[in-house]
Design brief:
This protein is an alpha/beta fold. It contains 8 helices and 15 strands. Strands 3-6-9-12-14-15 form a 6-stranded mixed sheet. The termini are far apart.
Length: 252
């Protein structure tokens, strides 16, 4: 038991730069308290003391703002950061070394009693604030779920899910796309420290790229004119791109 307590404290100190001392973690971190109470409730649940398990879970929710069904299975070194508003359903499973932020729901989409209704998170999964993971599917080891994402299908190991409904971004594919995008002068998904929306950054990049192509076409047309080649038909049919206006529409 004390080994588990030491692991809990150590993982908070490693993952939260605001955590200063072990005593502070022991006394001031509701995510840690919720996990401790859940272990007690889960033991009662497995032992057939279902009402007592639910009462302990209810008490934990009242004390911490974190609702974990006593039937949920939670691994070792799981870090619940802040935690307010988290809901973890009965058949949910959370792998070792995972991190869950405030406002997350690990919910079910089925009303069938006794069936697997909630998601399974692999090892080392990170679920961002406000994300909703709904259904009896697996989120693979090392996967990341972006803040406020709504995930309703399986997430492969090492992938990232963002948006509503969530789009799955694979590490290998992302790396290739990012490299190609950088050659064209923009970031394909924009997963940056600045926290810009990846779809918006991609659209801005496409607009800027189209604007560059427009300028190249203009230079080619001017060169043809200098050499006495008629380009009247090209001028009549050639579309123009107003990059500043398109970028403004994307931001709106």
């Amino acid at each position: 038991m004390f080994d588990r307590l030491r692991e809990d404290v150590r993982c908070v100190l490693e993952r939260d730069p605001a955590a200063r001392t072990a005593f502070e973690v022991l006394t001031c971190y509701p995510g840690v308290h919720a996990l401790w109470l859940h272990r007690l409730a889960h033991a009662c649940w497995r032992g057939g003391l279902r009402w007592l398990a639910r009462f302990i879970s209810h008490l934990a929710r009242w004390l911490t703002g974190i609702e974990i069904h006593p039937g949920a299975t939670i691994g070792r070194r799981v870090f619940i950061d802040h935690g307010m508003g988290i809901v973890i359903g009965e058949t949910a499973e959370i792998g070792d070394d995972s991190t869950i932020y405030q406002g997350v729901t690990l919910g079910g989409t089925s009303l069938a009693k006794g069936a697997k209704r909630h998601p399974t998170l692999g090892r080392g999964v990170i679920v961002g604030a406000g994300a909703q993971v709904l259904g009896a599917f697996t989120v693979g080891d090392g996967a990341r779920i972006g803040g406020n994402a709504v995930v309703v299908k399986e997430v492969p190991a090492g992938a990232t899910a963002v948006g509503n409904p969530a789009r799955i971004l694979h590490k290998e594919v992302d790396a290739a796309r990012e490299s190609a995008a950088n050659r064209m002068g923009f970031s394909a998904y924009g997963l940056s420290q600045g926290g810009d929306d990846p779809l918006v950054k991609a659209l801005h990049g496409l607009v800027d790229h189209a604007d560059k192509q427009q300028r190249e076409i203009d230079r080619l047309v001017a060169a043809l004119r200098r050499h006495g080649i008629s380009v009247d038909e090209v001028d009549a049919e050639r579309p123009t791109v107003d990059a500043s206006e398109l970028n403004r529409l994307v931001d709106e």
